[in-house]
Amino acid sequence: MNSMNDIGVGVGHAHGLRRLAGAGLLATLAAVVATTLAAALARAVGVDFEVPDGGETIPLAGFAVVTAFFSVVGVVIAAAFRRWSNHPAKRFVSTTVSLTAISLVPPLLVGADGATTAALVVLHLVPATLMIPALARTLRTRIG
């Protein structure tokens, strides 16, 4: 049984949610840095990240912003599974692996050159390999 604080929220639940948020923040920062560095490395070896639709080049800051946004979405998904699932880690992993697989489709359809397409696929996998295990680990040690 959880002890209750004055506003009726289980202390174990609040602690677990803070732990998830902390792990999510650290994983998000790691994902943003790793993805942006990987994009910079790809650009340094000649990947232009030019998307034919409009001919614009994806800026490095764009990788950071999109990675941060979808990483936070992942933390929200993890929090929802933590709150409403009896098996949050299992549900989180199956959902986010499926979403990651779906996210690999647009780079294949955009019509960019082979190097850009390959780099974009890898850049979808980089944050997923950091975020999914970090959040799943936190969900496995659920308190409350």
Describe this structure in words.
InterPro entries: DUF6069. Keywords: Membrane, Transmembrane, Transmembrane helix. The chain is mostly helical and about 140 residues long. It is built from five helices and two strands, in the order H-E-E-H-H-H-H. A two-stranded antiparallel ribbon has the order 1-2. Helix 2 packs parallel to helix 5 and helix 3 runs antiparallel to helix 5 (about 115-140). The chain starts with 10 loop residues before the first helix and ends with a helix. Residues about 1-10 have low confidence and may be disordered.
Beta-strand residue fraction? under 5%
Provide the gyration radius in Å. Answer: 18 Å
Q: How far apart are the first and last residues' alpha carbons, in Å?
A: 8 Å
Low-confidence sequence ranges: 1-11
Order of adjacent strands in the largest pleated sheet? 1-2
Largest sheet: 2 strands, antiparallel
Q: Please, how many helices?
A: 5
Order of helices and strands: HEEHHHH
The shape, in one word, is: elongated
Mean pLDDT: 90
Structural class: mainly alpha
Overall domain count: 1
Number of strands: 2
Helix coverage percent of residues?
over 70%
InterPro entries: DUF6069
Keywords: Membrane, Transmembrane, Transmembrane helix
Transmembrane segments: 60-80, 92-112, 118-136
Pfam families: DUF6069
